[in-house]
Amino acid sequence: MINVFQPTLGAEELDAVRAVFDSSWLGHGPRTREFEQEFAAHAGLVPERTIFINSATAGLFLAVELLALGPGDEVVLPSISFVGAANAIASAGARPVFCDVDPRTLNPSVADVERALTPTTKAVILLHYGGVPGEVAEIAELCRRRGVALVEDAACAVASTVDGRPCGSFGDIAMWSFDAMKILVTGDGGMLHVRDAELARRAHRLAYHGLEHASGFSAAGKGVPHRWWELDVREFGRRVVGNDLTAAIGLVQLRRLPGFVARRREIAAEYDRLLADVEGVRLPPPLPAGQRSSHYFYWVQLDPEIRDQVAADLLDIGIYTTFRYAPLHKVPAYGAGWHLPGADEAARTTLLLPLHQGLDDADVRTVVDGLRKSVEQRQGGTRD
Length: 384
Fold this sequence. Notes:
By secondary structure, the protein is an alpha/beta fold.
């Protein structure tokens, strides 16, 4: 099976895990802190305000708590987003308000976001679809003017930039995902960054039970004079911190990340070249000047009457494709009555092709040949 997503792991990661085993310290410790520091340097962040956590979803829930969102508050987010963002909003009693997206880029424009703002809007959560930054700089400026917090869900954008500035550095709060299907993987895991220093200190506490010190051992190491085992609980938190085992994998993956992204860029360019003349296949729009993508997704758009049939044809020959993310304004739990034609069109037409650094040139040609044959047959109303 040619998978749509697939991590790249090997001897370096195994050696890093073995070193953690040999240290006899698997939990939150020195490798976690090193990973936080190295990722902060990569993304242009303040290390002390950067927290390795167990998932980007945990970061979304923490962001809602840090911003004190609750009943009566509205949070704007694109309908083409991961369900974790809407769940975080709704679970706090706040109201998700979905904005439309451009049907070709699947990212919202600043105008899409602005149309969804109301006097009760307290925050905007912005996804960078497939790693494409979108109008993040303009949306960040809009949020500043309107006094609305911006949360960057940079799960897809681990190496995306606008004029050299990394995605995740535009918002008040940001999170990245390192789950098993991402580019940089730790199995499960994520990174959280909080721009405000005091709010970042609170995030550290909330990520570990509300404790001022993560453990008696760390308190003793900070010079607590005696009874370092006593609890100092400032507020009620939970445990969502990462650990040294997964951080060790992350450190290796972070070093390998430029090579991963370079290969993904090559594959995307090859898809562009090989599919340019296929009638009925629309390719992703070119990136705007000054933007660089992580190339997490590569998508094509097809006539909605054949899109699902083409996906089934490809699966029959061992090529897995999919669509992400299903439009949230169609989920009954979040309410009804939304009119978002761009999101609806994107959901009817878009298909993600395999894109990961493990694909070789032969795999790419296999995908292209399979897609070309299926589209030609389905448009002609035939199937061998």
